[in-house]
Write a structure and sequence with these properties.
This protein is 53% helix and 10% strand. It is an alpha/beta fold. The chain binds adenosine-5'-triphosphate and magnesium ion (MG).
Length: 401
């Protein structure tokens, strides 16, 4: 019976040419409208090829969400690795996502394990790890380009490691420089929390990525559609329709997801091409990828607090709810799940963090009583979908709602 089901599916002709190229982590070998940034990076890092280990570069990349910071740097890393290989220069590129590796220890372990597979995970201090990285690089005569993506997560918790990494060879005169760094943040203001010397190091070279224009979004989505979909499955008019939707937030990830979902919907209706109705249905059904990413890595208590906001907004059918109302909804949820509620001030912090992560918006009606007059709203995501996703994530973490 089950084999028959697969048989059926396999027989259906697909509208996709290569579905995997719509994956948000896929790195295409060309990036329309990021040529300037790629060539700027090449100019800055040329010295790693012409004078290996003489200079170390520290660069900071800034720009809004979903506008190609990560993918541009990843493509650059691949180009640089290939160029160095061709010239017999020992250079390694490592991409670390600081949202996933939340502590300096995890970041350092990730770095050291990518240069030495067998390095044990536990039993070292951060200082030990830094020394091991340095020793290893000296023995191998290697240069490392470390990308610290979503660096703001590390700045918030564990900024010492950034200081140590940016200073690795700086104390000693005339010794080989083994480590270059590219930091990526959305908002430049977060680096103000760093110590003065790290700040000045990073501020020397900042590359700001501009948001894409509507036309640029169209070009990018057309290119990605050509990679992933069969010919004539989507028309330029519909790519334009998707670009217009994406342009509001500017996050290309959402466009890729819309393309994918619209194509899946077309297939489920046995259509040979995507129609405007497929795009509309897909748009109705989607939660931005950036949001999903944040939710998946969110600590359980914070997620439960967010869920209580979503549930209440859904129930009340009013666009805004107050912090005090949310507290009540949260306490009920805690009781149902057998969780110990967090303190008022912790919850107030969660609320501020949710706001910073663009999950909610807050309107303060008065500044006098802290928190009491805050009105909370969720704008972009359909609430039933939001609720379903959060519950799924909680379930996957062993919490049953
Ligand atoms: N110029 C481009 N050409 C092709 N694809 C692109 C381009 N710019 C972005 N993308 C695609 O859009 C998606 C989002 O890009 P990316 O992950 O680099 O965003 P980001 O700026 O790092 O966002 P965030 O700050 O949320 O991490 C990726 O899947 C990427 O492949
Ligand atoms: Mg990114």
């Amino acid at each position: 019976m089950n084999t028959d089901l697969f048989e059926e599916l396999l027989k259906q002709p697909s509208n996709f040419k290569d579905e995997s190229t719509l994956d948000i982590n896929f790195v295409p070998d060309r990036l329309p409208h990021r040529r300037k940034e790629l060539s700027l990076l090449s100019q800055l890092f040329l010295t790693l090829l012409t004078n290996p280990n003489v200079i170390s570069r520290k660069i900071l990349i800034t720009g809004k969400t979903g506008i190609g910071k990560t993918v541009t740097v990843k493509l650059f890393g691949m180009i640089l690795s290939e160029a160095s290989k061709k010239r017999n220069i020992s250079l390694k590129y490592i991409h670390v996502n600081c949202r996933k590796e939340r502590t300096s220890y995890k970041v350092l372990i990730k770095i050291i394990q990518s240069i030495n597979n067998n390095f044990p995970k536990r039993g070292f201090s951060s200082q030990d790890l830094l020394e091991s990285i340095n020793n290893y690089l000296n023995i191998q005569n290697q240069h490392l380009l470390i990308v610290l993506d979503e660096l703001n997560y590390l700045i918030k918790k564990d900024k010492d490691v950034i200081y140590s990494l940016t200073r690795l060879n700086d104390d000693s005169f005339n010794v080989p420089q083994r480590l270059s760094i590219i930091g990526i943040v959305r908002d430049i203001s977060c680096i103000n929390n760093l110590d003065a010397s790290t700040l000045s190091t990073l501020q020397r070279n900042i590359i700001n990525f501009d948001v894409y224009t509507n036309q640029q979004i169209f070009d990018i989505l057309k290119f990605r559609a050509e990679l992933s979909l069969k010919k004539n499955v989507i028309s330029d008019e519909l790519i334009k329709m998707i670009s217009n939707i994406v342009f509001v937030e500017g996050d290309i990830r959402y466009g890729l997801n819309l393309l994918w979902k619209a194509c899946k919907i077309a297939e489920s209706k046995d259509l040979k091409l995507i129609t405007s109705e497929c795009v509309r249905l897909a748009n109705h059904d989607l939660v931005p990828f950036s949001t999903l990413d944040v939710l998946k890595d969110m600590p359980v208590q914070k997620l439960i607090f967010l869920l209580s906001i979503v549930i209440l907004l859904k129930k009340k059918k009013e666009p805004q709810i107050s912090f005090m109302e949310i507290l009540k909804s949260y306490l009920v949820l805690c009781e149902n799940t057998g969780m110990n509620p967090r303190s008022y001030s912790q919850l107030w912090n969660y609320l501020q963090e949710h706001k910073r992560e663009n999950l909610i918006t807050i309107n303060l009606k008065s500044k006098e009583i802290r928190g009491r007059r805050a009105l909370v709203e969720i704008q972009d995501i359909p609430l039933p979908k939001y609720e379903e996703i959060i519950i799924d994530i909680l379930n996957s973490k062993g919490i049953n709602i």
